[in-house]
Specification:
The complex is a heterotrimer of chains A (about 375), B (about 525) and C (about 400). Chain A has helices at about 15-25, 30-35, 45-70, 75-80, 85-115, 125-140, 145-170, 185-200, 205-210, 220-245, 245-250, 255-260, 275-305, 310-325, 330-365. Chain A is mainly alpha-helical and about 375 residues long. Chain A is globular, with a radius of gyration of 21 Å. The two termini of chain B are about 45 Å apart. Chain B has a 5-stranded antiparallel β-sheet, with helices on both faces. In chain B, strand 6 and strand 7 (about 205-210) form a beta hairpin. Chain B has about 525 residues and is an alpha+beta fold. Chain C is of the alpha/beta class. Chain C is built from 12 helices and 14 strands. Chain C has helices at about 5-20, 60-65, 85-100, 115, 120-130, 160-175, 185-195, 230-240, 305-330, 340-345, 350-355, 365, and strands spanning about 30-40, 50-60, 75-85, 100-105, 110-115, 140-145, 185, 200-205, 210-220, 225-230, 250-255, 255-275, 280-295, 370-380. In chain C, strands 1, 2, 3, 4, 5, 6, 7, 8, 9 and 10 form a 10-stranded mixed β-sheet that branches. Chain C is globular and about 90 Å long. The chains are: A mainly alpha (about 375), B alpha+beta (about 525), C alpha/beta (about 400). Chains in contact: A-B, A-C, B-C. Chains A and B meet through helix 6, helix 7 and helix 13 of A and helix 6, helix 15 and strand 12 of B. Chain C: Belongs to the GerABKC lipoprotein family. Chain C: It comes from Lentibacillus halophilus. Chain C: InterPro entries: GerAC_N, Spore_GerAC-like, Spore_GerAC-like_C, Spore_GerAC_C_sf. Chain C: This is Ger(X)C family spore germination protein.
Chain lengths: ~375, ~525, ~400
């Protein structure tokens, strides 16, 4: 019933602005302070985080800029206008795989963390399955609906982070932030890489910019969105280091959840804030997951135009589930996470570089 | 596309209207024949009154036919029979029966709404809808006088939506009165009333009203299209129409609001919405509605803005409790007792010591009892309803605790939930919340808080894919129209609300000029 | 496959999940809420490397709902003890002993006997409390003179549970000069990781009562208790670190005692150092106070008198502080004052050289030169100048 003006599959640049941080913020925040502090001294990791943040904001802007050059054109079609068709299909497929792997990874992590903090006996396969089913339900709906979900859940995410910061500010000890600037560049590097990976989530921009009604402002809005994420990350990192000290933060598996554990709300109503925190955090991870699964489906749909979206989802989901169940322990999961980030990062960088060069070259040829 | 569209109705093709009992469609010139056909058609009901008489020197044979009780007899006597007989004495009537009919129509009767009918169908419909029919022998036409005059309820304060401050009048079962009630609120010449007839057999009038120049034209078109597909024998209540034209019949959420209050309809019309009135019911449908509308009451605007805002916050809290409280109880008691303050946890544990059921079963028993009580209370006469409340709430609750079937804290939970759900202004929203509550309880009993949040996410997914006459149900939250947030959870002062809701995409954006404020 | 079928498949999956669900459901009344844990060395000294764990369980019906009135003398708590090599094994064993599975998130207090604290068991037994996800980092840790489980049997006075009583005593009294701030497991975890020396507050059982006074001094490198800090040293410690918010200083003016009540204590430490041998720390403590009690009858509204009073108080405070420093440097040889932390934060290079031998081996800490200065402001003399003439 496409009768009403916005009853269609289009989104606004405002929604991109909210969706970007909402996609970025995911499981990596839970362990971010550990990633930052274990190789560094004091709060030096935060510097690495800041630099990584700036780098990522710039990258987001570039990615969006690239996508905006081809308004209302889907990825595959503009890719094949720049590079040879087989290469374009290959890249589309790479993105589809990236999306599927990320979905599997996020599902696995949510199951692991839920098992640790919410359940003890419930098998994590079941937790993962229920989560995945809800994700599938979301992706089966309209694309614009996914962005509306981002809009609905994002305030909760910001709110819970602010609450966390507010109620742990009593534990914050500025002394814990010292010493400053004592970490060598060699040790900053892993912190930088770790933070960059934790910001992975700009790839969907390549796909969803085509749905934006007036895409002119998308690069700006996406960059603003990314800076929201960077700010929130910085706040969390500083808070955890300030509250725990460098050594402890580097030793805890999920320092952010532990920070939530330390919250003592006056009046003692929520004695265990971390449960509430974690429950809300499920929404965040859910947001990330739907976007990546939908990106995968979107990408595949552009290649296999004959298969319907629902069929694609139902073909892929068993594989996602199985892929998520493969890692045996935490280390394997971490390794999977690093691999996915590396993979995604490489592909995005490659695409951006390649496309800009190809575009320059084509223009030059025209003239 | 997708699962969301599972819930969307496929476009209904209007099936061919089967012909109703088609007696000889055209009228005959013979009066007796005409009367006989009519009698056969209706099988001589005893409320059918046929009054034959003859006029003037030529002895024109005429007959007035009406249904006793549907028309105003006084008017027939005074303005038709008396007039005709008087003029027949006084002046010369035309000899030609056709001319006589014309003369009667134009000069002789003092009735406002007169029209000519040629087919039996036309006449019978008019007859059954409160018209008196005048046959003249020798003419294949008849005059229809609209003299609706049946017994109707007086305009009273709406029972389902009582306010402390606000107009006290509510819609009644009479369509015409209802239209007038709206007209009295909005004197804009652009106020439109479009009449449809629905019901194969009942042939009820349905009026769609909106303000041209405010409403987005596509909404009118869409409602029009959907109304045309209605194919029912009868629509005894606007609920039938609602169910037929709503976007998703699987959704627990009401996609059209219903109200008994003319002031509420008027406000909605000014916001660019459309109202659908059905004859025979005081419940008027308002569409499109969105999530935010469920928790708004007209009274928010009648009290001062601070109070209105406070009441809205209160209602949001109430809605939260009504939906989540029992499920949170189950989740916390059975899965995450750590979330309960330690001392409370100990006392809950102490009171639950003798209870034989797990918290989930306990909650289901109590919630079921509560729903039962409410249902019973609604059906019983008012006076007995109170007794049920006392027996149910106090006696059963206390006895259940004494007997050790449920814990006292459970009684509190159920009572608070019930009270909270009464705070939601719209009854249909309350019902859907009550329904969703059971979903949450089920999820909480199997997966604790994790289940609750998953169901919450699922409901959100459903909402973002849901539309009300094409308008996303989740607006103006998402897609966000920040300007509309002034009148969503907050109720900002009237001077600040200069624009009509942006999510309605009204043609006329401003509700007043800013400079004047 | 049409959409309807998808829907059925989804529903079917959900049904399977739900029908097999409820793994984690444990009704609230079936949980054994553990509010406190006491760790002792077993009496039988032959059982080396074993530890005795006493858990204080809540008996909810003993607490009773308020409407049910007095619960007929049924105690609100039950102490269950078991001995074993690992705490988790003991917890398991305890589950079998008490019909209710131990539920730890409500734990408020961990009490360790001083004997245990002197062995290397200390850090190992705490591991469970730090590692377990059910435990909160806000659980308080204390050491107990003698039998740690003993304090679980004290008369709880107006609280129903002994642990609650102890906890509220700890919460309410750390502000005084003679007590130190309660230690949270989270804080202890930080000390253990940093290998810093630290204090653990001490509880003493006295008959049916308990007192919360003094602290155990722990060495950072091996995490064993090396000494006990008495009330006097604690006062000095609190003045040095500025952790107290109230307390009193008694001085003598013309042979009659005057008590000054401290209202605010702030301290700051500056560390100067060029080389590892010449580490200098200076601690400045500023105190705001008021005259609380005086047995003297002279007027207090006298600038000079107030000044001498302040001087005397400062001297007294400095003496207290110096005693503590001396004890820390010579008796315990443990850097409980955080000089090393300051060094680490602001003189990173020097710290790298002294880190290994800070308060052990070479023990640079003992050789460090720490001087103190204090400044007292007497804000008010109370509502009256004199109460008698």
């Amino acid at each position: 019933m496409k009768t009403f003006e916005y009853a269609d599959d289009q989104i606004s640049d405002k929604e991109i602005m909210i969706a970007t941080p909402s996609v970025v913020i995911g499981v990596s925040v839970l362990s971010l302070p550990r990633t930052l502090t274990s190789p560094t001294n004091g709060m030096d990791g935060v510097i690495a985080l800041g630099v990584a943040g700036l780098f990522v904001i710039a990258l987001t802007w570039l990615v969006a800029k690239l996508a905006v050059q081809f308004p209302h054109e889907n990825f595959y079609s503009y890719a094949s206008s720049l590079i040879p068709k087989p290469a374009a299909s290959m890249f589309t497929m790479l993105f589809a795989v990236y999306g599927l792997l990320t979905t599997a990874y996020e599902t696995r992590v949510i199951a692991d963390v839920a098992e640790q903090y919410l359940f003890t006996r419930t098998p994590f396969g079941v937790i993962a399955l229920t989560f995945l089913l809800v994700v599938i339900y979301a992706v089966s709906g309209s694309r614009a609906g996914l962005f509306r979900l981002h809009m609905m859940f994002f305030p909760f995410i910001v709110l819970i982070i602010l609450t966390l910061v507010l109620f742990t500010s009593g534990l914050f000890d500025p002394d814990n932030l010292f010493p400053v600037l004592t970490t060598g560049a060699g040790n900053q590097w892993p912190a930088f890489i770790g933070s960059t990976f934790s910001f992975m989530g700009f790839a969907p921009l390549l796909f969803y910019t085509s749905l934006v009604k007036k895409p002119r402002n998308v690069p700006k809005k996406a960059a603003i969105g990314m800076s929201i994420a960077v700010t929130l990350y910085m706040v969390i990192a500083v808070m955890s280091i300030g509250a725990f000290g460098n050594l402890t933060a580097g030793n805890l598996q999920y320092p952010t959840v532990e920070l939530a554990k330390d919250v003592e709300i006056p009046g003692g109503f929520f004695e265990r804030f971390e449960t509430v925190f974690f429950v809300i955090w499920i929404m965040t991870i859910f947001n990330t997951t739907i976007m990546f699964l939908d990106m995968a489906v979107f990408a595949m749909n552009q290649l296999f135009t004959k298969i319907s979206k629902m069929q694609l989802i139902f073909i892929c989901s068993p594989f996602i589930y199985m892929a998520g169940m493969i890692p045996k322990n935490n280390e394997d999961v971490d390794a999977l996470g690093t691999f996915i980030s590396m993979y995604g990062f490489t592909v995005v960088i490659l695409i951006v570089a390649l496309f800009f060069i190809a575009r320059k070259w084509k223009r030059g040829k025209k003239q | 596309m997708g699962l969301g569209s599972l819930f969307k109705r496929k476009d209904k093709q209007p099936s061919k209207q089967e012909p109703t009992i088609e007696f000889d469609a055209e009228l005959k010139a013979n009066l007796d024949q005409n009367l006989e056909t009519l009698e056969i058609m209706l099988e001589k009901p005893n409320d059918l009154v046929i009054r034959p008489f003859s006029l003037g020197s030529q002895d024109h044979r005429c007959a007035v036919v009406y249904i006793d009780g549907l028309v105003d007899k006084q008017e027939i006597n005074n303005n038709i029979l008396k007039n005709l007989q008087y003029y027949a004495e006084e002046q010369e009537l035309p000899t030609n029966s056709h001319a006589l009919l014309d003369e009667i129509e134009s000069d002789l009767v003092s009735i406002g709404d007169v029209s000519k009918g040629k087919t039996l169908d036309e006449l019978s419909f008019a007859l059954l809808y409160g018209s008196a029919i005048l046959y003249v022998d020798g003419v294949d036409q008849a005059l229809m006088f609209d003299l609706k005059g049946w017994e109707m309820r007086a305009i009273e304060e709406p029972v389902t939506e009582s306010l402390i401050r606000g107009p006290r009048e509510g819609f009644i079962e009479n369509l015409r009165t209802n239209m007038i009630l709206i007209r009295r609120h909005i004197r804009d010449p652009n106020l439109r009333f479009k009449t449809y007839q629905i019901g194969r057999r009942s042939k009820k009038n349905l009026v769609v009203t909106y303000i041209e120049g405010v409403i987005h034209p596509d909404i009118v078109k869409e409602v029009n299209r959907r109304l045309k597909t209605i194919d029912l024998d009868d629509a005894p209540e606007s609920g039938y129409v609602e169910e037929w034209i709503e976007d998703s019949f699987l959704s627990p959420f009401p996609q059209l609001a219903n109200t008994e209050r003319p002031d509420r309809v008027a406000t909605s019309l000014l916001q660019g919405k459309i109202a659908i009135m059905l004859d025979g019911t005081p419940f008027v449908l308002v569409a499109p509605v969105t999530l935010g509308n469920m928790l708004q009451s007209p009274e928010d605007y009648y009290e001062r803005w601070l109070i209105g805002t406070f009441l809205r916050f209160l209602r949001y809290g109430g809605a939260f409790l009504a939906m989540f409280l029992p499920s949170l109880y189950i989740a916390l008691v059975s899965y995450n007792p750590g979330l309960i303050p330690a001392k409370l946890a100990f006392s809950i544990a102490a009171t639950r010591e003798g209870v034989p059921f797990p918290a989930a079963i306990e909650a289901f028993i109590m919630a079921f009892t509560m729903e039962l009580l409410r249902e019973a209370g609604a059906r019983l006469p008012k006076t007995i309803g109170q007794t049920i409340g006392i027996v149910g709430g106090l006696v059963i609750g206390d006895a259940a605790v004494q007997a050790g079937i449920v814990s006292p804290i459970m009684v509190i939970v159920v009572a608070v939930t019930a009270i909270a759900s009464f705070a939601i202004p719209s009854y249909s929203a309350t019902i859907s919340f009550r329904l969703i509550r059971f979903g949450f309880m089920l999820a909480a009993s199997f997966l604790g808080l994790y289940g609750v949040i998953l169901v919450y996410i699922m409901i959100n997914i459903h909402i973002v894919n849901l539309k009300s006459i094409g308008v996303p149900y989740s607006s103006p939250f998402a897609p966000s129209f920040f300007h509309d947030w002034k009148d969503l959870v907050l109720r900002t002062p009237v001077t600040m609300r200069t624009r009509r809701p942006a999510y309605m995409q009204t043609v006329d954006k401003k509700s007043r000029n800013k400079e004047k404020s | 496959m049409n959409r309807q079928t998808y829907c059925y498949v989804l529903m079917g999956l959900l049904m399977i999940l739900l029908l097999t669900g409820c793994w984690d459901r444990v009704e609230i009344e079936d949980r054994g809420f553990v509010v406190g844990a006491a760790l002792d060395l077993p009496e039988d000294s032959a059982q080396s490397k074993k530890v005795k764990l006493t858990n204080q369980f809540v008996v909810p019906s003993g607490i009773g709902a308020p409407s049910q009135g007095s619960s007929g003398g049924q105690p609100a708590h039950a102490n269950v003890a078991a001995t074993g090599k690992s705490l988790l094994a003991i917890e398991r064993e305890m589950g079998a002993m008490t019909s209710r599975s131990p539920y730890l998130p409500n734990m408020k207090l961990i009490s360790l006997s001083s004997e245990l604290a002197k062995t290397d068991m200390f850090e190992s037994v705490l591991d469970l409390f730090i590692r377990d996800h059910e435990m909160r980092r806000g659980v308080k840790v204390a050491i107990t003179e003698g039998n740690a489980a003993g304090i679980f049997n004290i008369d709880a006075k107006n609280a129903k549970l002994p642990v609650n009583h102890i906890e509220s005593v700890m919460n309410n009294h750390f502000k005084y000069l003679g007590n130190i701030r309660p230690l949270r497991v989270g804080g202890l975890h930080e000390y253990l990781l940093k290998k810093e020396s630290f204090l653990v507050p001490k509880i003493t059982k006295q008959g049916n009562d308990m007192t919360y006074q003094g602290a155990g001094v722990f060495h950072g490198y091996n995490n064993r208790m090396t000494g006990v800090m008495n009330v006097k040293a604690t006062k000095g410690y609190n003045l040095l670190t500025g952790q107290a918010h109230s307390g009193t200083i008694k001085i003598k003016m013309d042979d009659s005692p005057v008590t000054l009540e401290l209202m605010e204590v702030t301290s700051s430490m500056k560390v100067r150092s060029q080389a590892q041998s010449a580490i200098k720390a200076s601690i400045q403590t500023d105190v705001e106070s008021r005259v609380a009690e005086t047995f003297a009858s002279q007027s207090l509204q006298n600038e000079k008198r107030l000044q001498t009073m302040g001087k005397k108080a400062e001297k007294k405070m400095e003496k207290l502080m110096k005693t503590t420093i001396k004890k820390a440097q010579n008796e315990w040889k443990a850097d409980i004052l955080g000089v090393g932390r300051k060094l680490h934060k602001y003189h990173y290079d020097v710290w790298q050289t002294v880190k290994k031998d800070w308060d052990r081996g070479q023990n640079y800490f003992s050789e460090a030169d720490i001087d103190v200065a204090s400044d007292i402001t007497i804000k008010t003399t109370g509502v009256t100048d004199q109460s008698k003439k």
